[in-house]
Amino acid sequence: MDLDEFRSRINALDEQILKLLNQRAEAALRIGELKRRQDLPYFVPEREAEIVRRLLSLNSGPLPAEGVKAVWREILSASLALEHPLPVAYLGPPASFTHQAAILRFGSSATLVPARTIAEVFDEVERGRAEFGVVAVENSTEGSVNVTLDHLIDSDLLIAGELSLEISHHFLSQAPEVASVRTVCSHPQALAQCRQWLTANLPEVTLEEVSSTSAAAERAVGDPTVAAVASELAARLYDLPVLRRRIEDNPLNSTRFLMLGRRAMPPTGKDKTSILCSLKHEVGALATFLEPFARHGLNLTKIESRPTKRRPWEYVFFVDFEGHLETPPVQAALSEIRERCLFLKILGSYPTA
To answer: Which of 334, 259, 223, 321 minimizes the C-alpha distance to 90?
Structure first.
């Protein structure tokens, strides 16, 4: 076939795809009505995961797995929006890395609600104004996001999922050149992740911390003496020139985000559980606490201590390990661990990123 014939073939396929998508949308509307009458949850992430896994198992190419995931993320997001709006809170303004993580997880048809602070994200979900919240919890270069950990100690929300996002920072400004910049602003984590580049190229500038990378982009609009460390999406949204690309110190820089919700997630077969606990002040307490994990074959993926801020020198441990609360090995291990803790809180079991 020649080029025109291939294009005609593609046009015909596009028409078939559109017809099938609308048939799927009609089915989604009927499902939404049934869920409404039976008072069932509209968003069932385990069902979405099952759909994507099944399609990936059927995919014979040439469309790659990531392409299939991206297409179906938007199809599922649009279908869910027809059933019922899904409000998702994130640290804004738009174009922050948390905004990108929210789109990547829930699709662009979700009702994405920007919050001014991580505390406000928690509050939106706790009060039921958002179904889910998206917050950063740790970065591969700078470590944990402490404000998120601190709120997990007191909040009743559960972790409903996780997502890892590669983070590339760009130097955005209306300035004619890098040397003309007098103030560089961004989120504290972003500034820390670009510390070496900023020291080497702009050792005399003022560094200004703001609530998010997208707030930094807003700050840089209209003032050619100010630059923002932010994303390429922020550059497009706020119409800011990119003076330097990828200024992060670690080229493998990535951030882990948590999805926060109010209900527990069922097992998917590839899950992670997060807990926090405080231990007795005695010799060998940590070793005694960790022993059941090894004996029951549970792989720890993270352990970190954090001050409670309630009493001086009182700490809690955040622990992530592979497995789901509903499985026998996890239940057995936690039963033993609970007896060895002064305090134990289950933060949730959720699909592994």
So the answer is: 259
